[in-house]
Design goal:
rod-shaped; 95 residues; 3 strands; mainly alpha; three-stranded mixed sheet; 3 helices; 68% helix
């Protein structure tokens, strides 16, 4: 096998370590991996460097996305506690 065609980096590996380890192993076996969406050949001179850049950017975006999810969870939790406290207050007031 000379080449593996892949739609995108995200379809090839789930994390940075797995991606880079697998690409390096295949490169040692002289198997090129082509990522179609990113237009990267791992056997090219700048292929691994481009992978590092793209993975770094994706990691930053993932961290940002995780922060957004955490903040939304906190906001939902605060809203729930606020509504629960308001309901409790209204029930106690009616008694």
């Amino acid at each position: 096998m000379d080449m593996i065609l892949t739609k995108s980096i995200s379809r090839f590996a789930r994390n940075t370590v797995t991606l880079l380890e697998t690409v390096r192993m295949l490169k040692a076996l002289e198997v090129d991996v082509f990522f179609e969406e990113q237009n990267i050949h791992t056997m090219s001179a700048d292929g691994e460097l481009m992978l590092h850049y793209i993975v770094a950017i994706a990691s930053i975006n993932e961290i940002d996305l995780n922060e957004i999810v955490i903040q939304k969870d906190r906001a939902a939790s605060l809203k729930y506690h606020h509504e629960t406290n308001l309901e409790t207050f209204m029930l106690n007031r009616q008694r």
